[in-house]
Amino acid sequence: MSKSEIKENIEECGWHFLFVFDPNGEHEDFSYSVGLEEKFDHPEIIIFGLKKDSAHAIIADIVEDIKSGVKMEPNTKLGNVIGGGFEVMFKPIISSAYKEYLGTAVDYYGREFRALVMFWPDKSNLLPTEKGCEVTVQDEALAIV
What we know:
It is a single chain. By secondary structure, the protein is an alpha+beta fold. The chain has one domain (3-142). The protein has 6 helices and 6 strands. The chain has a 6-stranded mixed sheet, sandwiched between helices. The protein is globular, with a radius of gyration of 14 Å. This is DUF4262 domain-containing protein. Pfam families: DUF4262. InterPro entries: DUF4262.
């Protein structure tokens, strides 16, 4: 994906979507946005452990909220992000993880930008940051916040 293709998507839709997967299955799949910082002065969003279509739909919904002025506040449980009465939490990604996990965005921006990992809950509405959470596909994400 070239920088100009990413730029076109951002100009057309307000953001660009990337899905990253490990064909060897050693790392969790993850997805992230590019363009939110540029268009809406909002951190990029990265989500681990969801299928491509699910992650795209969630980020697209978040972008619609951001377009209407909603800010995804970090380190706070938020409802009304994914529906179903479930809560999520956004946490800032550590700077040392940007190149490995957000490489395309790093190359696109060529400068510092912000990014938040969105943690989603298990069936009991427990987040991976909470004791007893049954979702383990976000363990890698916990290591980079």
